[in-house]
Amino acid sequence: PMLALETAGGLIDFYANDLKKLSPDEVGMPPDWPRTDEFFDQWILQESNVKFLKTHNLRMEEQPDALSNAYSKQGTVWRGAKTIAGYNITQQRLAKEWPQHIPALIMRGEHDFVTPDNKSPFIEGIPLSEYAEAKDLSHQAHLENTPMYVAIVDGYLRRVESGAVMGGKSAIPKNSPNPKKKDDKKEAESAKKGFGFG
Hints:
By secondary structure, the chain is mainly α. It is 50% helix and 6% strand. It contains 9 helices and 2 strands. It has a two-stranded parallel sheet with strand order 1-2. Helix 1 crosses helix 2 and helix 5 (91-97) packs parallel to helix 6. It is elongated, with a radius of gyration of 21 Å.
């Protein structure tokens, strides 16, 4: 499957190609900008990035201060996209490296630049996984609709605590800071058979 970053670039190109079919005035190019190909291409790239961000990253009129602050630290405290540029996850890698008794919630916004294809390795590689899609939201779903986001996560955590995600066994043992040693393979098969993937 495509990496999310490749998907983002493809979406920006898609928007740029659509905008290039229009005239400079139709795409809102400022009247004082020279009407050359170079300036037109620069404006198209800028507008394509804005459309991408407003559609797939944060569907809010204004970016919250906390997010602006986080983005301002990119390259210092937070490494951002450059850190994961070469990262690749596969179903086989997850099946080998993910502890089979640990459940996982795989969540994305409906309009997220992390496409449905990106979730497949996680769902297929983590036996005790559930998938949730936040309707009408994008990558920053937790900021766009906090109550919906919290409801999804809270519902999932309640199912984990009750054992519904674990084939009837709670993932959080009572009065114990460490999970008991379990037969990972048997437990994973039991969960698959009894509950399937969410």
